[in-house]
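Aim 2 progress update. The chain analyzed this quarter is reproduced below.
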Amino acid sequence: MVALPTSIHLGVIGLGYVGLPLAASFAKRYPVTGFDINAHRIEELNQGVDRTLEVSSDELSAAKELTFSTDPDSLTDVNVYVVTRPVRRSGRRSRASSRGGVRPPW
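Predicted structure tokens:
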């Protein structure tokens, strides 16, 4: 069994309908960096707006430990990663987002 770090800082990569609710929920207890490559999405989230309507403005405001970024360097202090991926309309997972994704800092 792998021991968890004593001080957890989560990184949620991909802030769509799966990643954002996870990030907001984890941020109730742990520091969380939410990362997405879509700068417009990050701007909206920083203003407390989730256009997918998965997380309310009140929930975003309550997630005091949650920060958003498009900068891969913002993940350097993260020690637990959650990577979410888009799903095609057919229901199959898309590999396109994985190919040019964020490289771990190690």
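The mean pLDDT is 85. The first strand starts at residue 10 and ends at 13. These observations will guide the mutagenesis experiments scheduled for the next reporting period.
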